[in-house]
Amino acid sequence: MTDIKQTLETAFDGEPPLTLDVPKIVKAGKRRVTVRRAATGVAVLATVTAVCVPAMLGSSGGSSGGSTGSVEVAASPPSTTLTTTTAPPASSTANVPPQDTVTTKPGAEVPSMPRPEPPRPVTEERARQLTALLASSGAIPADAQAKPIPRDPLPPWEFQASGNEYRVVTDVTTPAGKGMVLIYLSPGAAPTCDPGCEVVRQPDGREVFVSTSEFNGIRLLLVDVAIPGGRVHVQVSNSSDKTVGNGERPLTAEQAVKLAAIPGLTF
C-alpha cells in the first residue's frame, strides 16, 4: 500500500502549471454573446424596414410634398375594410307608394277619414223634437200611406239618432207611386248644385238643390238644402228594397222640397 501511494505522489510531482486563463475565456464569451445579439437586432430591423417602407410610400399617394405629420404603419387588411356609399335614387317609382297612400298589412283595418262633427251633439231627445216638428209641419202628404221598410223596421216618419246624424227611413205609398223616402240631417259642408241640378229658391231666401238619377229601373229624386253646420238631404226612390223599381216615385219634386225646407229642421 505504501509503495502505491508513493508511486502516485511521484507521478503527480512537478505537474506543469495550467495554461487556461479562465477570466480571459469568460470575457471572450461575453463578447461573442453581445455580437450575436447585435446581429440579430440588425436583421430584425432590416426586415421591419423592408415591410414598412413600401407601405409608407404607398400610403403617401406618390405626392411630391413632404409630410410633417406622423405616419401610421399599421393598416387594416383590404378584406376587413368597410366602405359606406349612398345609393343613387331609383330610376323607377313603380313600386314606391305615393306619400298620401295608406299601406297596411294584410288583414289590418284601413283607417277611414274622420267624419265631420255636428254643431251640437246628436241625442235621442233632439230626435224626438225633430219627429214632432215633422209631424206638425204639414209637409207629409195627406194621402201618403207609410210603413217600415223591409229589413229595417224603423217607425215611419220618425227621426232616429244615428252616429253623427239624424235620419228618417220610411216606405211610402201614394196614388203617384210606391217606394222609399229618406230624410237625413248630416253635418259637414254646405251642399252645392252639380251640373244638371235645379235651384229652387224658398221664401226665406234659402236655395234648395234638386236633381234626379236613374239606374237599372230605380229612379231617384235628390233634394239638398243647407242648414247651420251641415245639410238636410231628402231622397225619394221608386224602390222599397233598393233593388227593384216600382214604376213611379211616391213623392213629386215639389213635395220633396217641402220636406227638406221645413223651418227649424236643424241640429
Describe the structure.
It is a single chain. With 267 residues, the protein is of the alpha+beta class. Among the domains are: 19-58; 124-260, no CATH class. The protein has four helices and eight strands. Strands 1, 2, 3, 4, 5, 6, 7 and 8 form an eight-stranded antiparallel beta sheet that branches. The longest helix is centred in the N-terminal third of the chain and has 38 residues, at 22-59. The radius of gyration is 54 Å and the shape is elongated. The protein starts with a helix and ends in a 7-residue tail after the last helix.
Structural class by helix and strand composition: alpha+beta
Series of secondary-structure elements, N-terminal to C-terminal: HHHEEEEEEEEH
Instruction: Give the low-confidence spans.
Output: 1-18, 42-108
* Count of helix runs: 4
What overall geometry do the principal axes of the alpha carbons give? Answer: elongated
Number of beta-strand segments: 8
